[in-house]
Amino acid sequence: MSSNSPPTKKFKKTSSEVGTSKTSNFLNDIEAERKKTASSIMEFKFNKKRVRVLSEQKEVPEWAEGVIYWTFRDERIHDNWALLYAQKLAIKNKVSLHITFCRLTQFLNCSLRHYKHIFQGLEELETECKDLNIQFHFLIGCAADILPEFVKKHKLGAIVVDFMPVREHMSWAKQLADRIGSEVPVIQVDAHNIVPCWVASDKQEYGARTIRNKINNKLPEFLTEFPPVIKHPFNSKFKAQPTNWDEADKTLEVDRSVVSVPGLKAGFKAGMAELENFLKKRLPKYSTDRNNPVKDGLSKLSPWLHFGQISAQRCILEVSKLSKQYPESVAAYREEAIVRRELSDNFCFYNPKYDKIDGAPNWAQTTLNDHRKDKRMYVYTREELEGSRTHDDLWNSAQIQLVKEGKMHGFLRMYWAKKILEWTDTPERALADAIYLNDKYSMDGRDPSGFVGCMWSICGIHDQGWRERDIFGKIRYMNYAGCKRKFDINAFIARYGGMVHKYTKK
């Protein structure tokens, strides 16, 4: 096998089958489009640029009895280039197909809220796997530690892994390749971005304006329909143990006080239902309503996109079908869901200090340092911020929304983070507190977009210098009066109940 392609063997055609029996017309129509594109991944021209071989071993060994896909960031069956590539490898080598999720005891600041969402989605995925003759293994531990032995024991001849440009996952993938890569290939597939991160650009981009054309020019090559995942034609010599989902969270060492968001359903079906709602109800006014925190104008898809329970590429394919009816809204959504989203991955992939002041541009580091000792009128502890106990009722309301609903409107998230810079004693603590709160409560925390959002607000990445002022220096400034001009802040405050708390000087 070359570094980017699997070995070829004869393949006997298999009819495509759907892993779910009760689906909406929306899902049925999409499945019909997949089948129209190709009967299976074997009849589809897979773009090898989506693939990076991380290991010394490049070829699937002759003794292989299966291929395993380690899912972490893209936890879905459908519209998943990584799983499709794993099935392509397995069919070409006439072996069984496996998926594993390796559950950690803790991951960054992931709370019970996030793990519950993960487990609900994986439970649906496990059911689909049974229908598709794919073995699903719910394993406990770090993949880099447990997969080498698991792979050897069961004679699995290749490991396909997700791409996620945060240092922990990048490190695990490298460790996995180092530990077993001389025996079986460890292959990374970017199934999260439309244009693979390493293809979009070979360097850290300055901002949206420098990466936009690079991505848009490559969309004709990468923004394609998906083929279907088919019922796998080769049986496994060993069966996966059924997962006891009631016990899945028992040994987690996480904050259990952060409970699930009421009414938020996880999984592919729920995510696709929300996509359908967006297309019908909110997309028509997306271009005008998305920046108003009081209006119901956002896609609301981030919980499913973050955990990879639905595909951003699928969202773009469906939204783009309405470009003639709603050209401005479709253009606005494509800018957010393609350019801005993939710019975030670019930043984290090429900047190892993506969550530190040291990762900011030189001008921003200089200006923040110049104003490090400026007098702060208000200084709050992390606990006061977390408890929505500031003098600013709008900020408190935004924090309440984050805690209760696991989300915050994008415009207010900028204001929220910038006020943390203004109300903490150092830029370093401001950034740490913003990331901590976002990761702990937001459904899309611990994500490149979240890191970039905090870094943009506090450290000026993907931005430019503005008029100099106290504390902020040349970092872009936002204030309460500006929010009042932007939207009806009283309506937002009334909705979430943020109060004005008397400030106690420290």
From TrEMBL:
Does the keyword field hold Endoplasmic reticulum?
Answer: no
Among its keywords, does the record have DNA-binding? yes
Which cofactor does the UniProt annotation name? FAD
What the entry lists under InterPro entries is as follows: Crypto/Photolyase_FAD-like_sf, Crypto/Photolyase_N_sf, DNA_photolyase_2, DNA_photolyase_2_CS, DNA_photolyase_N, Photolyase_Class-2, Rossmann-like_a/b/a_fold
Task: Name the domain of life this protein comes from.
Answer: Eukaryota
Provide a Gene Ontology MF annotation, just one. DNA binding
- In what residue span(s) does the Photolyase/cryptochrome alpha/beta domain sit? 65-197
Catalysed reaction, written as an equation: cyclobutadipyrimidine (in DNA) = 2 pyrimidine residues (in DNA)
**In UniProt terms, what function does this protein have?**
Involved in repair of UV radiation-induced DNA damage. Catalyzes the light-dependent monomerization (300-600 nm) of cyclobutyl pyrimidine dimers (in cis-syn configuration), which are formed between adjacent bases on the same DNA strand upon exposure to ultraviolet radiation.
Q: What is this protein called?
A: Deoxyribodipyrimidine photo-lyase
* The species this protein was found in: Aphis gossypii (Cotton aphid)
